[in-house]
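Incident log, structure service

09:12 report received: a user says their structure output differs between two submissions of the same chain.
09:20 pulled the input from the user's history:
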Amino acid sequence: MSAILLRVLPYLAVGLLVACVLFGAYHQGVSVADAKWLSAWHQRDADDKAAELENEARERVREQAYQQSINKAVQDGQRTNDQAAADATAVRASSDSVRGAADKLPFDSQPVKPAAIPALPPQARQLLAPQWCLPTCSSALTSERATWLNLLTKPEPAEEHASSHTPP
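09:34 re-ran on a clean worker, output below:
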């Protein structure tokens, strides 16, 4: 048995060596593929993070511009309110001076006459209704119109054709 073992042992050693080389190549290929995949994965994560930061910065700029427009609107409104308050104070002061001047005027207690309404000129006056037009005139006209409408909207009776009519 040792003679067979000595004969087979070099073949087994070569087979084991080939198996080890093949396994090493396989392991190297897997490692390279994993490294490549991991590199691509990290690159995708970095790209996502960069895009997120860029988007966040853009949104922050837009929010700041919006807030600045709100602040400007508030300032404009406050300026308008301040101007309105100053105008109201000036109006009050001038109305007080006008009121004071009016109080110094002599008081005349004559009654005020009511406004006169002038008569209409003849061409603007409405003519009198003629004698022949009676109150029943409009109701008769309405009745006549209803009759006409009925005649216009009533379906016509089906006429017989001359060819279908036979003399007795």
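09:41 both user submissions now match this output. Likely a transient worker issue. Closing.
09:42 reviewer note: The mean pLDDT is 83. The radius of gyration is 56 Å.
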